[in-house]
Write the structure tokens for this entry.
Amino acid sequence: MFVVCSKAILDQCRSSGAAWGLLAGQVVDGDVYRIAGMWESSGGSGRQDVVGVWTRPEAVAQTVGAPGALAVVLEQAAPQFWLRRADGQLDHQTAGMVVDVERDLFRRLRGIVDRAQLQERTVTIIGCGSLGSGIASLLVGAGLDRLILIDRDRLETHNIIRHLCGVSDVGRFKVHAVAERLRDRNPGLAVEARPINADVQPEPLIQAIRCSDLVIGATDSPQAQLLINAQALAAGKPALYPGAYNFAFGGEVIRVLPGRTACLRCVYDATADLFQRQEPGQNGQAVSYDEDRGHPGMWIDVGIMAHLATRMAVETLLGQEDPNCHLTGHYLLWGNRRLWVFRRPLESRWLTIPRNPACLACGGAAALDQQLAAQGTNRDAAEAAAQGILASGDVAANGNAWHLPTT
Ligand SMILES: [Zn+2]
């Protein structure tokens, strides 16, 4: 038998004034006891999930419990684990492991990432489907300690093969199920789950964005992404907008730094000829990565987009901008297949989209009026001119030109 116990629980036992108490836990894999916590000191458990007792060395003889009960003997140097045999005697000391989560969980990140800096950051993820749940899990693995999750949907069976959660979570709100998985990755994680529809209840979304250092719009709705864009801009928060194309043959990650880069509205407008960004289920090339809507892809393909978005998220949070080491562009295209602009599988390409000073999302109406006045025109006249430009197909003349890199 092998016993796994957390150091925090043993410390709790040590600081307890009682001579002995009951331990709650589970039998895992037949011969592994996992001690999950200390129940209150008591004369009897009456609970099926109590696997044993803990006691101080002088009280071993009085340790009671059914055959198979576990005794943890606390001594100054190290704890000892004993098992009660069927004849009532305590068996030989058995092997055990004391897990110091706080000390060891992120030990392998030392020298790789500045976790102290990441710990101070809060990220809000809107959309906890294939992409959002993957990004959340990867961010926790990178060392982030504070997350806010927003999604109104419940987990359905067909979600599972493309999701962090499992069949046992079907029917639960995605945010609650994902939060539970994340806490299992890092028990010290501060994760807030909000099962709300941000379209109907914008206040919780606005509040979450305001207290965040980074916003990630991982919904399958361009309209929802634009709503997030507007609120992130209003709050002056950087944001990422990852997405997957039809059947996840490829995808994209758009990074918006308020005041520095094109915003999502700028990008959507500049690439309107390239994409038909519609609500999933409509005709055309819908940008969708959720289930039973649009054209979902395999999780191996969508998951790559989650990894790329998380990489960009960490570098944004840490302010890493060394072009030799970091992703310094703001519009990444990723191809899983040799399709469209991708000349080979697993190819990345970067687009440069200039910020549109007349963008009503990031430029603002005042900026637009000011710009138009300087040009001796106004909104009505500009709109008529724009219609003419669109009709002629000369989009580049409008200053919104985009280009594919040549390398
Ligand atoms: Zn804009």
